Amino acid sequence: MSLLLANKIAVVTGGSRGIGEGIVRSLAAAGSRVYFTYNSNAEKAEALASELTSETVPVTAVKANVTSADEVAALVSRVIEEAKSLDILVNNAGITKDGLLMRMSETDWDDVLNTNLKGVFLCSKAVLRPMMSQRRGRIINIGSIVGLSGNAGQANYAASKAGLVGFTRSLAKEVASRNILVNCVAPGYVLTDMTGKLTEEQRKTFEEHIPLKRSGTVEEIASVVGFLASDAASYITGQVINIDGGLAL
Ligand SMILES: NC(=O)c1ccc[n+]([C@@H]2O[C@H](COP(=O)([O-])OP(=O)(O)OC[C@H]3O[C@@H](n4cnc5c(N)ncnc54)[C@H](O)[C@@H]3O)[C@@H](O)[C@H]2O)c1
Question: pLDDT tens per residue, the chain (249 residues)?
């Protein structure tokens, strides 16, 4: 079997569960050596790293908060020191703190913007130097269709994901001459811890509005990320790809 990402070095933020875990599994299965971050539940993160390392390629779990410039810098230095290059960054870490704007606290606004947008700025900035000197790189941001359509009760989250679209397009223009491609995937509704707070009835009602009549899976997001990280996507940059079963139509 040919491995699409053989010998590539990838960093995935928030990779210990949900969509991030799916992306880590998919990149490792394609032959990429993966470093992924987690910010809680070290046991689960280490278990994932050892499972994949024994089955595929070396996979390393690193405790790092994407909102800390120091922790992000330490992560990137470690990857360069150990693996000697950094080819793929997947900015996946994200949070929600939902509420109607009338009642939204400043802390809930700041926390969501800090993780979802500033975290992407810090991680992307940190990988640019090694990617520029290699004259190749892929940055893939995990946005959301909510960043395009908006959603009542998610003004902070939607603003962060809409900001990611402008960030993706601007950075794509800045670094294209160095062969660094920057794209965004925008999932619709995927069953993970983030969306798991809905009741069965709420989930069914929500799924009725999706043209494909079902939620997406983490694998359906991860496969597009794998494609964007591969040579097959060498002429795609600055794009936002919706993976939403038609929800945003
Ligand atoms: N699940 C969905 O339906 C859906 C839809 C659209 C977009 N997304 C996006 O996909 C991404 C993953 O979401 P998920 O559903 O897997 O959520 P999740 O809550 O299951 O996982 C989020 C991950 O981000 C990590 N994280 C959070 N804050 C962090 C920080 N400060 N530093 C480092 N890591 C941090 C968490 O530890 C966790 O691993 C997010 O960016 C989310 O906005 C999810």
Answer: 457 899 999 999 999 999 999 999 999 999 999 999 999 899 999 999 999 999 989 999 999 999 999 999 999 999 999 999 999 999 999 999 999 999 999 999 999 999 999 999 999 999 999 999 999 999 999 999 999 999 999 999 999 999 999 999 999 999 999 999 999 999 999 998 888 777 888 888 889 999 999 999 999 999 999 999 999 999 999 999 999 999 999
42, 89 Cβ separation under 8 angstroms: no
CA quadruple 226, 224, 51, 11: dihedral sign: positive
Q: Which entry of 35, 38, 157, 189 is annotated as an active-site residue?
A: 157
Please name the residue whose Cα sits nearest to atom 25 of ligand 1.
14
Q: Is 187 in the pocket of ligand 1 (CB under 6 A)?
A: yes
**Regarding beta strands 33-38 and 9-12, do their DSSP bridges make them parallel or antiparallel, or are they unpaired?**
parallel
| Mutational pocket test of ligand 1: of 110, 118, 194, the residue with most ligand atoms within 8 Å of the beta carbon | 194
CA dist 219 and 213 (Å) reads 17
Nearest one of 90, 67, 82 to 13, comparing CA atoms: 90
Q: Is 92 in the pocket of ligand 1 (CB under 6 A)?
A: yes
Reference 97, options 209, 197, 222, 239; nearest CA is 197
60 lines ligand 1 (CB under 6 A): no
Q: Enter the pTM of the model.
A: 0.97
Domains and CATH numbers, the chain: 9-243 (3.40.50.720)
- 157 in catalytic set: yes
